[in-house]
Every structure is written in C-alpha cells, then in structure tokens.
Amino acid sequence: MALRCRTCVAVLVLGLVACSSSESDEPAASDVPAYVGNVPGVAGNTPPGNASPTPAAPATDAFGAAGDGAGAEDDGAEIIEETPQAPPLINGGMQTGASGGAGGMAPVQPEGGAGGSEAPAPVEEAPPEVTPPAETPPEVTPPAAAAPVSDLPVPARTGVPRPSGAAANLRVLDWAGFAAAVSYTFDDSNASQFANYPALKALDVPMTFYLQTNKDESGANDARWREIMADGHELGNHTRTHQMNGANIGADTDAATQFIQNTFGVTVRSLAAPFGDAAYVEVARTRFLFNRGTNGGLVRPNDNTDPFNLPCFIPNEDLGTAAFNAQVDMARTAGAWHIVLVHGFTGGGDGAFQPVAIGQFTGAVSYSKSVGDVWIDTLLGVGAYWQAQKLLSLAVPANQNGVSTWTWTLPARYPPDHFLRVVVDGGTLSQNGVPLVWDEHGYYEVDLDAGSLSLAP
After folding, report:
1. What is the radius of gyration, based on Cα positions, of the chain?
2. Are the C-beta atoms of 356 and 416 separated by less than 8 Å?
3. pLDDT tens-digit profile of 384-401?
4. Which of 105, 256, 317, 440 stands 20 to 30 A from 120 (CA)?
5. Is 149 contained in some domain?
6. Whole-model pTM?
7. What is the CATH number of the domain that holds 225?
8. What is the largest CA-CA distance in the chain?
9. Roughly how many angstroms between the first and final C-alpha of the chain, as a whole number?
10. Alpha carbons 276 and 269: distance in angstroms, whole number
11. Angle, CA of 373, 314 and 231, to the nearest 5°
12. Contact 245, 277 (CB under 8 A)
C-alpha cells in the first residue's frame, strides 16, 4: 500500500513553523496550531478569551508559492523536508530558535534565549536628574517672654510665716501692705519746678508732673523733661493751653497728649484738669485712666471716689513742714491715699499759683519717707493699685471641685505689668496653673495681666 504523505512546509513567520501529517486528506483537530503569542499573521493569534481567532495566513512553500492543500504522491520515494529559511530579525532583535516538538508550533524564544543570535547590549537610559529638596532650616523656638516683675515697694516687716489654715478668706492688702499712700503732683510746667529739680531728685521718690505743653513746644525744656522721665517720674497731661470750660477742651487735651507721646515716647494715662474744671471729667473718661481735680479730700480703699475726679490737697503759700506732716498723719490714721498738688516754689518769678518754699516741701516729703508705713508713688502707680483692688474685691469666685477661681477684666488704658498683694487663711494660690510663692514680708503677689486667680486646699 502506497504511503500517502502530505508535507506542508510553512514559511517561518516571525519564528513559527507549522507542520502537520495525516493519513487522511483533512487535518486532525490536534494538528491545529495552538496560540503561541501575539504575532501578526499567525494562526491562533487572538489571545485566549477573545471571541474569534484571526484566520491563519495561507501557507507558502520555500519559494514563496502558495500551497493548494494537497501534497504530491510519492511511490516509495523518500520524504525530503524542505530546509526552512532563517526568519527575519524581529524589531531589530535576534533570530528565532529551533522548532518545537512534532505536531506543534515552534515558540518564539525570548531575547537572549538558546538557539538565537546574541542581542545587542541594551542601552541604559540615564535616570532623570532629581533636584534634591531645599534643606529646611531647623525650627527655632522663640524664647519665652520674661515674666513680669513687681516694682511695688517692700514693707519693713519680715519673717511672716506662710498661712497654714483653711483655704478661705482671700483679702487684698491696702496700699500694697502699707498703712497709707501719698502722691506728690506738680502742675503747669513752671520754671521754678525745673530750677529746684536737683532738690526734688535728691528725695528719691516717684512724683507726677502734669505738662502744660504750649510752654514746652519750642523744645527748650525737653532735656529737663527727659531727665525727669528717666528718673522714674510720671509725665501727665495738663492740656495744651490750660482752658476753662472751652468749646474745644477735648481737642486741646488731645494736642497735649500727642505732643507728650511724640516727644517723649510715653503713653499718657492721667490728666490734671485745669482749674479743677468739672467739664474735664467727661473728657477724661474717654481718654485716660484717671483725672485729678482740685477738690479736697482723701481716697480710701474700695470707696466710691470717682477716678475721673480725684481729690487733692493744695497747700497755702509758704505752708510749713509741720502742716504738711499733719496731712500725712491724717491719711495714715484713715488708712487712705493722700494726693498733694504744688504749682511751683517761691523765688522763681514764674507766677506759680500759691508757691511753697522748697525747704518746707522737701522736709515734708522726708517725713513721709521716715515714718516707714507710707507708700510714696506716682498718681498712676497708687491709682492703678487702688482701682485693681476694687475690681478683685467685688469679683465673685466660681467654685468647682473645692477650687475657688476669681476672674477680672482690667479697664481700658490700664497699664501692663501691675500687681496686687493678697493674703488667705491657707491653701494654695495659683495663676495659670502655677502656684504663687509666699513672700516673707507677708503676702502673695498677683499678676493682674493674668486675669484670674485660683485657691485650692
């Protein structure tokens, strides 16, 4: 029986060789090439899962002629297989490797695989240049603001033990722990005040000078005012032109404030009304913390004195030291604040109202210092304490878990860095969670800027 053989030489397309043999004229199902890769023009080119495979291109012989599907009969002739031509380079790469097993398609060898030509060395692309991030400077923590320090004078007593009783009975010490307070004030920017300033300076106590600024706008007296300010004295407002109930007293007052602040760089917080005119009370309410009038009287702790019409003592001309001292003793007995007003000194020739002798005055101040229980300070210094004492004394504490807390709001134009001195029967006083330290002179000091104070058992 003659052997019927049909040899199909498929052109190697992209390295794939298809060969099938069968005793029948029709190829068996197993002879259908399997999916071997996404190579164009090859049977089974559609990836698995696609609806319809791409039909295979017709096979060609070694010379490029298309086959008719039927092989020539050969009576006993030897089967000679055509030698396949080398496949072309794919994408500039290597040739395909050897054919696979019988009846299958030869798989495409990956680049660098066995049986193929060696691929050219890959060209390494330089990595993109990366700009390093800018170096972040180390974070700098600003220094903590220094805690304010009290400049209240220290009473003579010492060695007072810390209270050890119940946490109750918060009390503010009158006049920072002194029996009374005195403030010495000067009006009108009179020349005799400058002429006698060396004697005033030697007393070494803070005083208040109320400037009538139209006397100083030429700048002739600036150097002396700067010395006075540098020595710790207060510069206050006595208006520009010293008017009595005029239609423009507000503007005249503002002009003086502007001059003082621009010239000396200080905030003006108190006014002395010219002639003690009551019309300045309302002017002061919207501009200052205090206004000193000219009515006589004393100021007592927690009393109802109007801060915009504070009373004062105006000595008669040539009043002696003894009369001055009597006024101070009266304030000590009453536990009050005594404000003194002097316009100038005798012998100055500046027309000061009711001038006094410089020796009598300095003698009186020396007496106030010598008694040891009088706090001598500027009108602003004593007045700020007096005002804050009323504020805290009227505050009603909130109580929670056995802790009592007082809160307050300082009035407009109140100066910073001021303190009160307080005592309790016992317990722990604190502000912002920090316990207050007991001072052996007999008190705790409360920072008014903190706005609250707590007492715990």
Report:
1. 54
2. no
3. 999 999 999 999 999 999
4. 105
5. no
6. 0.69
7. 3.20.20.370
8. 165
9. 124
10. 17
11. 60
12. yes
